[in-house]
């Protein structure tokens, strides 16, 4: 039975979640100092809440997305790095929405798995398996990097156009060297313009399909639509039309690694890729505007919660790095905007929030109690849910901080807690051989995160406080495991 809706709405709102891949938090037009225009997202922020200190639980695609889907930290579902598959006995918020009468649809990327890779002949069966996570419909388009034999409906389009081999050749030319961390910065990601017709560019395919789905989505029951773009994830290969409209900026504002300054060639290559990155963002932003238009034309804006976020950020040359996986803010902070139905007032929240808080917020909007909906009688510790609803902040009902600090992990290599002023990183990969290395950054005095204060006696109290916070999270959120047959469930959640 569908739970009663909260507030004055006759029924739970529709929900549209737009998730990008590898979008830096500082690349929003509405963010002070941003040089990346995003008029459509600015338009969403004008009637929603902008969260300026949102943090991913893991700056890697699969574990971050699994955390969002389940409302749990990656270590709780045994996915702290990009490997394996999300176990099917873990409850998801989509299953809870289905139980409450929602029609759930995914358009674009999924990536809750990494071991199970669909083949051309096995795609239909694979998508049926993916529906078990809580989707009624799946439009699966995921060929951002165009490498390997993994299949999706997007490759069907390329093959039907007779352009699959050309696309694969492009993917190999711009993507393979990008993951070689030893390659020189100046040549690592060569960058390019998308060489095929622009209508076959992945984010144009996803955007067009999402617009089509929104236009025909029935309104006799609430719906959930998840639109997951592949960009602005590398390789940096925007459509020519968007690149032509995006200026190249000669801005020497790189955060350079200590003792390893960037060469002029490095900066030139990074500047070109930053231009391409902004052009990819412009492509996504245009489609987001078209989706907002459809909601308005159909008269659904007042009845639909719209959220925008990303799974993680992108280094873009800062600290001499590309991609993500690192505990620096360029990698761990994510953009987040939530527009609550019927509350068309711009708000801004500068306190710490996490991606799992968005999960809790969506359930709250649907009138669903999180713990009861996501708990499982067959898994121990399954009710230990870190997410906290942002409803009060988004609607203006509360100005109180959502949480004192945010938590994140990286590939089994580091653990991080970030508070309003301080960030502690504990590099755990050395824990077997020696004491883990620690970094403590004063984010007010040192926003570039260059001066390690962990050994500073004046910061001893702050260091110990953040160690305790880190330990508190790990102690209170153990990994879920199968219950022994006939065993009593573990004690109540803290």
Topology:
Layout: E1 14-20, H1 39-45, E2 49-55, H2 61-70, H3 93-99, E3 103-108, H4 123-130, E4 137-140, H5 153-160, H6 164-175, H7 185-188, H8 202-216, E5 223-228, H9 240-244, H10 264-297, E6 304-310, H11 329-332, E7 336-339, E8 347-354, H12 355-365, H13 370-374, E9 379-380, H14 391-395, E10 405-410, E11 414-419, E12 422-427, E13 437-442, H15 460-476, E14 481-482
Parallel strand pairs: 1-5, 1-6, 2-8, 3-4, 3-5
Antiparallel strand pairs: 2-7, 6-7, 9-14, 10-11, 11-12, 12-13
Helix pairs in contact: 1-10, 2-12, 8-10
**First-to-last CA distance:** 28 Å
Mean pLDDT, to the nearest integer, reads 91
What structural category do the secondary elements indicate? alpha/beta
Strand content: 15-25%
Outline: globular
C-alpha Rg, in Å?
Answer: 22 Å
User: At the third CATH level, what is the topology name of the largest domain?
Assistant: Alkaline Phosphatase, subunit A
Q: Helix coverage percent of residues?
A: 25-40%
CATH architecture of the largest domain: 3-Layer(aba) Sandwich
Task: State the major sheet.
Answer: 8 strands, mixed
Number of strands: 14
CATH superfamily label of the largest domain: Alkaline Phosphatase, subunit A
Number of domains: 2
CATH class of the largest domain: Alpha Beta
How do the helices and strands follow one another from N- to C-terminus? Answer: EHEHHEHEHHHHEHHEHEEHHEHEEEEHE
Return residue spans where pLDDT drops below 50 for at least 5 consecutive residues.
Answer: 1-9, 484-489
